[in-house]
# Entry
Amino acid sequence: MGYYRGRDGIELMGTLVKHAEEQHPSVSACAVTARPEDDVLRARIRGQIDRWDKRLVILAHHYQRKEVVPFGNFVGDSYYLSKVASQQQRAEHIVFCGVHFMAESARILCRPEQRVYLPNLRAGCPMADMADEIQVDDSWDWLGEHFDQKTIIPISYMNSAASLKAFCGANGGLICTSSNAEAAFRWAFARGEKVFFFPDEHLGTNTANRLCIPREQRVMFDPLHPPTDPEPFRRAKVILWKGFCHVHVNFTPDHVRQVRQHYPGVKVVVHPECTEAVVDLADAVGSTAFITKYVEAQPAGSIIAIGTEINLTSRLADEHPDKTIFELSGQNCPLCVNMFRTSLEDLANCLDELGSDSHSKEITVKPEIARDARLALDRMLELKQ
Ligand code: SF4
# Structure
């Protein structure tokens, strides 16, 4: 799901950085020019890493900037990093280079005395914001007016606020990531008749497709236009929330057709937050961890078009100079601006503040929310994939 990079690996990664614009112009469309002060920031970061040694763990999501990723002790997708966070025994400080819901999940999963930080507190997730607690509570109440709630198992994608994870924990449900959505759905169907999945309609649709759940047994819950007729919900096995990732819905079936036309033999691999029309045309679909492994497994000389966030694609292109790797759309820059917010400066400032009683980037979760959210996250971590 990810990989561990020892402290010596930090230097190694620096040697791998190589722009791939000669392979495909859009690979580097979002590249940021290095600034002279970056070396000073790197030195500050290394100094703090040395100072705190094993008492500090830095987690970096695959979509982080390429200058930030090398400082991650662990680099991976949200599933892998949440697992890692739950397993840290010696670290006093866990710095999560990612977005808010990830750091919140780490906070919930680690021990109470450990402290968790998000270097840039403005790094949120627009998709997670598409389902808020009041909307989900209202929809649950509406479902409860028409159906026995005990037969409905709520599943929240990891990309959601802690309060929604707590909602799932308190109502017999669980959390999933794009690595284990199918296993989560199976878990739910072993315990109930319907799955209520939020907030990503595309991951939900693609998972329902993988599980061969007929279309007439799916229904969309649009929180902005709440339903009035319960009939379509009566026959539904999967209730999908109308939400999406603006980065991944940018990829279109035409993009897949165009790369197939221009690059005979190209392999297309996409993330399941893409629409089902794109997923249907791709050669492979999976989480960022899956995409990473898929690229590694292709033989030298392969041409690979990737439908996910640009920073991962760009880094994979750098790390596999023997393959031609580019982002699928060729024109749009599929950048997650929230993942991009965490800069070297943010990381350096965050590390400099470690040890202070009131760290300005510390993530906290109310105990009652953390307790129920932990229940839902633990159910996910116990899933057999
Ligand atoms: S890539 Fe999409 S789902 Fe992931 S953090 Fe960014 S907006 Fe959210």
